[in-house]
Amino acid sequence: MIPARREPGPAELAARTQLSRPAAEVAPRLLGALLVSDLGPRVAVRVTEVEAYAGVGSDPASHAHRRRTERNASLFGPVGHAYVYFTYGMHWCLNVVAHTEGTAGGALIRAGEVITGVSAARSRRTSARRDRDLASGPARLAVCLGVTGDQDGIDLLDPVSPLRLELQAVGGSLAIASGPRTGIAGAGADTPWRFWVDGDPTVSPYRRSAARKSPR
DNA sequence: GATGCGATTCACT
DNA sequence: GTGAATCGCATCG
Question: Using the CB atom, is residue A128 less than 7 Å from strand B?
Answer without folding.
Answer: yes
